[in-house]
Amino acid sequence: MGGQACIVYGASEFSRDVDLAICAAPDNLARLGAALTDLRAEVIAVPPFEPEVLARGHAVHFRCAAAGDMRRDVMAVMRGVPGFETCWARRTIVPLEGVGDVDVMGTEDLVAAKKTRPDKDWPVVRRLVDVHYRQFAGEPTPARVAFWLRELRTPEALVDCARRAPEAAGTGGRGHRRPRAPEAAAAVGPEREVVAYARRAASGGLPLAALRAALAEEEDRERAADDAYWRPLQQELEAMRHAAGRRQQKLPPGGGGPTL
Q1: pLDDT tops 60 at residue 37
Q2: Which of 61, 94, 153, 245 has CA 20 to 30 A from 12's CA?
Q3: CA 114, CA 227: separation in Å to the nearest integer?
Q4: Domains of the chain, residue spans
Q5: What is the pTM of this model?
C-alpha cells in the first residue's frame, strides 16, 4: 500500500519508503518479525512493534540497515479500509522482474487508505480513480460504476460517469442486454451529494465551478474525519514518547533505544 502501490497503478507518487498492510495474526507477525530481523530493522522511536498497538490503528515504523536504511511502515487497521481478508481478496498481483509476484492493495482500498489529512494525498486519490475510469470506462460493471460514482474527484470525469450511469450495464453478446443495474447509483451510499451535482451539471443545470466547490467541501469533511480518527491515537503516541523518554533517561551510558 502507499506511494509504491500508487506508482504501480500509474498514479505516480515519489516515495522513499515502503508501506505494508499486514495480517496481524500471531503466526504472520512472527514471519514478519523474522523478515525484519534479516533486514536488520530497528523500530523508529514509537510506537513499539506489538499486536495490540497495531490493532488500535497505529503504524509501526522501521529503519532497515540491510536495505540502505530504507524505511518500512507497517499497519494492520486503517480508517475506512475493510479488514485484511477483504483487502487480500481484492488485491492486485503484479509480477516484477527479478523480484517475482508482489501483492498490491486493490485500487478501491488504496483510495480509501489515501483519504487522509495531508495535502499530498488528495491529488493521488484523484489520479488513482481517474486512471481506473480511463482504463475501464468502456467495460463498465455495476461494481465499477458504483466505485466511480463514490470516488471520482475530477469534475469532468464525474459528470461523464453520471451521464453514462443509466447505460452502465451495456449490451451483452448476440444482441442481449446485460442485466441493468439501477442499484449502481444507490450503491454509492445514502447519497453522495456531489453525484446529484454531477447529474445537474450533465444536464446543463449547474456550472462545473459549483461541482468543483462541492468536491472541495467533501474533501474538507474527509480531512476532518481523518483528524478526528487520529486525535486519540496521537495522544497515545505522545504518552508513549514521554514514557520512552523517561526510560531512556534511566539507561546506563551506551544504552540503546527500542529495537526489533
Answers
A1: yes
A2: 61
A3: 13
A4: 3-106, 121-221
A5: 0.80
